[in-house]
Amino acid sequence: MRRFASHPFLHTALLAALAIPAAQAAPTALGGLGGGACTAAGVNDSGAAAGQCRNAAGDFLPTYWAAGSVVALPLRGLQLDGVCEALGIARDGQIAGNCELGDAGERRPVVWRTPSLPAAAPQLLNGRIGDDRAMATAINPAGAVVGVSTSPGGRDVPVIWKSDRTAATALPVPGTLPPLLSPVTQCRVMALDPAPAPVAVGSCDLRQGGTVAVRWTPNALGGYGVAMLPGIASGGGCIAVAVAASGHIAGTCEDAAGDMAAVRWLPTLAAPALLRGLPREAAQGQQVFAADINAAGLVAGNYIASDGRARSFVWAPADAPAHEDGLDLGLLGGSQAYARQIADDGRILGMTETAQGAQIAFSWTPEDDMRDLGTLGGHTNLPAAMSPNGAWIVGVSTTVSGYRQAYRIGPAEAGASRRGETAHTANTARAHAEAAEGGYPGLQLPNPMPACHDKHSRCGAWVANGFCVSTFYSRAQKAAYCASSCNLPC
Predict the structure, then answer these.
(1) Residues 165, 174: contact at Cβ < 8 Å?
(2) CA of 482: how far to CAs of 332, 451, 474, in Å?
(3) Which of these, 61, 128, 244, 371, could form a disulfide with 74 (CB 3.0-4.6 Å)?
(4) Is the dihedral of CA 43, 445, 242, 157 positive or negative?
(5) How far is CA 193 from the centre of its chain?
(6) Which residue positions does the secretion signal occupy (predicted)?
């Protein structure tokens, strides 16, 4: 692993942007509902978590764990014995998900406004007028929900339910106005910023092939405007994967040589800063992907090294091509690592391997480098989410008996959470004078409208190196680049 001292410019930029994250404790098992299995889906800045647990009858129920408690509270569905799923949790404890409704068992988007009252029914979120079904995919810290609304003819449209609203706001496709034909066919949202009426980013499929990164911003009329983000000169398509409260956007673009580079767009949407490889002088042929961005504009991501293995990095964009370089996060005895999120205090959460090949969760900070987060007695730990302030982590670990159990990791000592919140506020202020507290939790949203064909000419080589079967890349990433080669359904 390359050290800070070997890259003075990177050292200065990172230390200027990062706070000192609070130390983390060992995983604590979260209680269940009598069925012996739980999974966690999200956690907020207070440590309250949401997920699913199996009850004694064998049914999986949406579940809430209050801050400071490991007691599992089951959440009601829209109908008796109806199946539901919890997707994530907002800063104030609201939980978004989907529940079955009707004899056909179709799932509908919902929000549990007061999950601490398990008897309270969820609130149904409506699709667009005229559409016959909808689905939620994630919730941001302010309680805004993103998803898709589907017409009777099967056309999916990305939508946002603003905080405390049940009416869907459709996100338009970029291009010409009707009745002229748009250059874009379908769009997908990958991330929201932390506002009640959030900015959204994602990508759209071009009618002539390829993808374009896009940003949707709320307008004065209550709807949304859309803008296409510039790519790399003479390069191919782009996708945007994360957006911060400051307006900075992280994503990935194809360059003129057909290689993938991590990018960061400024709020002005000028030409993006590029990270082509690690180290910069050995970038040719590497494939570099952004995964998340924090309030200070730091980008975490992953790259395919020359040996075909996935590694993780953190990058402090300088908007100066001669100085753009990332820092490899290292390994814990294995050969691969995959970063998932970066918190506003600079902590990075991801997954890596041990020397024995077991999958484990890692946390990285400038002080501790990469650290094994431990298990509940078994061999594996699969991280699910980290709070925006970096103080809390949830996931699933194996126990001594080999069962999978949800866990939560919090600050290691009393008062650490308060220090984390203070550092989080300072970082947000540095990132943007008007940035909202809370940050972006780096939600990796499933692609609601996966492509049905490969969008990159190098898919054959990537597949040969294990891209499709690797657990270090999300389904959305695989679908965005090599859907056909990875045999992903339309």
Answers:
(1) no
(2) 29, 9, 12
(3) 61
(4) negative
(5) 11
(6) 1-25
Q: CA 181, CA 230: separation in Å to the nearest integer?
A: 21
pLDDT tens-digit profile of 211-245? 999 999 999 999 999 999 999 999 999 999 999 99
Residue 275 has phi, psi (to 5 degrees) of -120, 110
Residues 6+ apart with CB under 8 A from 340: 291, 292, 349, 350, 351, 383, 386, 442, 444
DSSP state of 198: -
In one letter, which amino acid is 398? T
Per-residue pLDDT tens digits for 348-384: 999 999 999 999 999 999 888 899 999 999 999 999 9
Residue type, 219: N
pLDDT of residue 64: 98
Upper half-sphere CA count for residue 19 (Cβ side, 13 Å) = 28
The first and second tokens of residue 367, run together, are: 């002080």
The span from the CA of 426 to the CA of 411, in Å, is 19
- Per DSSP, the three-state class of 424 is helix
Q: Is the pLDDT of residue 184 over 80?
A: yes
Strands 84-89 and 95-101: antiparallel
Q: Show the DSSP H helices in 400-473 as ranges.
A: 416-431, 459-464
Q: Where are the beta strands (DSSP E) in 400-489?
A: 404-409
**CB of 240 closer than 8 Å to CB of 251:** yes
The amino acid present at 362, given as its one-letter code, is: F
Rounded Cα gap, residues 461 and 308, in angstroms: 9
User: Distance between CA 207 and CA 152 in Å, rounded?
Assistant: 23
Q: What is the 3-state composition of the chain as percent helix, strand, coil, each rounded to the nearest 5?
A: 10, 40, 50
Task: Report the predicted TM-score, pTM, of the whole model to 2 decimal places.
Answer: 0.82
